[in-house]
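pipeline: protein-struct stage 2 | run 1193 | aspartate transaminase
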Amino acid sequence: MPAPSPRLLRTATPAIPAARRWAAAYGGGAGPALDLTQAVPGYPPHPELLERLAAAAARPANAGYGPIEGERALREALADDLSRSYGAAIGPDDVAITAGCNLAFTMAATVVAGSGEAVLLPTPWYFNHRMALEMAGIGVVPLPCRAEEGFLADPEAAAALLDRHPAIRAIVLITPNNPTGAILSPERLERFAQLARERDVWLILDETYRDFLPEAGAAPHALFQATDWRDRVVQLYSFSKSYCVPGHRLGAITAGGAFRAELLKALDTFQICPGRAPQEAVAWAVPGLRPWRDANRQLMAERAAAFAAIMATVPTWRVEAIGAYFAYLRIPDGLPDAEAVAERLAAEAGLMVLPGSFFGPGQERHLRVAFANAPEDALRAVPARLRALGA
C-alpha cells in the first residue's frame, strides 16, 4: 500500500475529537459530562434567521452555482457593517465570502506564501492554522507570547524574527485570541501594521471573535483607515459565532489590490462558491440582527466575568488570560503536563477541555477552556471537577 502524503502524516490529528475520546472512559460519578472543548455559541440562532434559512434552502435557484466571491447582497451587508465598525470606507469589492473561516485562512495563506516560504505565527496558536500551513508545505516561525505579558504578541520580538528569517511572507494575528482570549489593543495592532509595511510582508488579521469584544461601539483598530491598507492588510471573519450558524460554514476575507486578484484563483479552486442559502439568510441578519448580536456580546462578557469569579474559588488553577469565548488556565505545580491532565479530567471528572500542548510549543502547563458554550449554572461545576485531581 502506498504511503499517504508525508505532509499529512506529519500533521497533528484533529484536536477536539481526540479530547472527546478521553471522555469515553468517564463513568458519570461527578455528574453529567461537561464539554468545554469547542468554541460554539451556547444559545440557538435567532428564530427569524432559522425561518429565512429554511425558506432560502427551498428556493431552487439556490441549488445552483453562485458567484465565486460570494453573493453580492452578503458582501454589501458585511462591507457596510465593517465600515460602521471601523470608521472606514470598505466596499463589497473588498469582501469575499468563504465556506467558513478555516477555509478563509487556508486560501489567504495560499495567496501569500508557498513551499520554501514561511509565516510568523504567535504561540499559543490556533491549531487549525498550524495544520493548514503544514499541509500546504508553508513553514511556520513561532512568535512566543508570554503569560506575564498577557499572551500579547510583541511587535519588537516579531521584528527580530523577521530579521532572522527572510523567508517569512506574512504575520498572522488573532484578536480576540484563540486559545487565550487576549485582545490586542489598537496601538499594538498599528505597530504590527507598520512593521508589515516596513518589512514588506502581509498582515493577516483573524477577527473571528470581533463581535464579542467587551466594549461596544469603539473601533477595534484603525488599520482600515490607512490609505494603503489594501496593499498590506488581510482580515478574516466568521459568521459562525455571531449568528450561531457554524454548521452552515460561512466566513469572509476582506482584502484588496493584488491580493484580491490572486485570491479569486484560490476561491475558484478550493470552493467554487460558498453555500447560497445561508448567504441569503445571513445577508438579512447582518443589519437585521444588530441589536440581537450586541445583546449576545453583552451575554458573553457577563459569562467571562462569571467564569473568572468561579475560578477565583480555586486559586491554584490560575486564569492567565480570558476573553471572548476562552479562558487559558495554568496547571498547578505537582500535576503532570497538559495532555495527561486533560485526559484525567475527561476520564475521571467528566470535564472536557483542550491541553495547551495542542496549541504549540511551550504550552505544556496550560489548558484551554471554551466557556461560551455552557450556561453559568454548568460552569459552577468546574471547580469541583478540577479539585478531583487533588490540586
